[in-house]
Amino acid sequence: MERHITLPLTKELAETLHAGDTVYLTGTIYTSRDAGHKRMCETLARGEELPFDPKDATIYYVGPTPAKPGQVIGSAGPTTSGRMDAYAPTMMSVGARGMIGKGARLPEVVEAMKKYSGVYFGAIGGAGALLAKCIKKAELVAYEDLGAEALRKLYVEEMPLVVIIDSEGRNLYEEGRAAYLASQKS
Amino acid sequence: MREIEVSRITDVIERLCIEANEHLPEDVKCAIQSCRACEDGEIARNVLDNIIENYEIADREHVPVCQDTGMACVFLEIGQDVHLIGGDLTDAVNEGVRRGYEKGYLRKSVVKDPVRRGNTGDNTPAMLYTEIVPGEQVSITVGPKGFGSENMSAIRMFKPSAGLQGIKDFIIETVETAGPNPCPPMVVGVGIGGTFDKAALLAKKALMRPLDSSNPDPFYAELEEEMLKKINELGIGPQGFGGRTTAIGLNIETLPTHIAGMPCAINISCHVTRHKTEVI
Q1: Which chain B residue's Cα is nearest to A103?
Q2: Cβ(B102)–Cβ(A147) under 8 Å?
């Protein structure tokens, strides 16, 4: 199913999305990857506030290339999500609901997604030049010292994504492959 | 004896870092296009269309194909009749990488210590391999290597009794384990033989060989074809969403090895398999 959705990713909206849906996403998202997630989870462990409001937020696992003069952002495709698995349940527990990345997730992340109505979107890995076209604004929020890994606020328009794992725990990696293999037998 | 200033090597590496990151090699583009033509699933076809559109944007607008502009793997084949003058060769190579990554607005993805981390800020050091070859030329190859796929690579020291079947199973197992993580469709580099370290280097070099070429030994050329076919029967598909195109190429490189062993390394790469060569 093809969907055009506007953020924030409320619980109600999240629950209408299903594994395999093609989604064109519009709204504000935040960037973070390895070092940023580590820092955010340390902040939460100390009982302090995050540098952004995580409620119904969507986090894009990306470390873009530097913007050339006149560009909003450089190439900006997803990084491997599995490296954020250690942090994702904590982020969902404070309200962050959407994740954009690529690659497999651990069962504990899927369990947290079911508990908090999370959605895991896939962007095309390696399509950094194409995905940058959907990013209309980029603004540094925190962790500037982390360079490409800094926390940024992005405004995206019609960002092409696919729902990989939905809030019920259905998984396109399993279903898509099984469907293809079944189609080859018939 | 021909004298070459190391500063010339710096200049070439600066340029190759930028060009390799902005323009995919023609053989890789052709492989993606021919896989697109054979793909039948709707999501799979959309993914491949987007991948093609992506490298076309990169070509046209001179931007990096992928945001992971990689560690700079640099291969120098230095003619034995060349005398390199004017400075330290390693410094010259790193200076080329430093300038290329700065000037090309490429991402700096190197940390100065594997455990304690800390970005070096200029994408150095390069992963430098030098080889002395006959002649009086220097061949320079830059292959920026992303780590989404590098992380899915594997090496195994087989007993010789494991035989060809052991190698075949290991290739399939490695691709299965990689699954959607290395941004499929992948390119698979296989190094068989040598020592522990040489097998890994062979696998990396296999990724630098054009995808429309075959191993000169018909036995391994056939194995390349057979394993690519088997991988594309796994159903992982573009981005792991299901489909025919799990890999767009598989190259095998080999070396003689010890009577007691059969090392095999598999270096996984993605549809953004980048390399560019210049000879001076």
Answers
A1: B181
A2: no
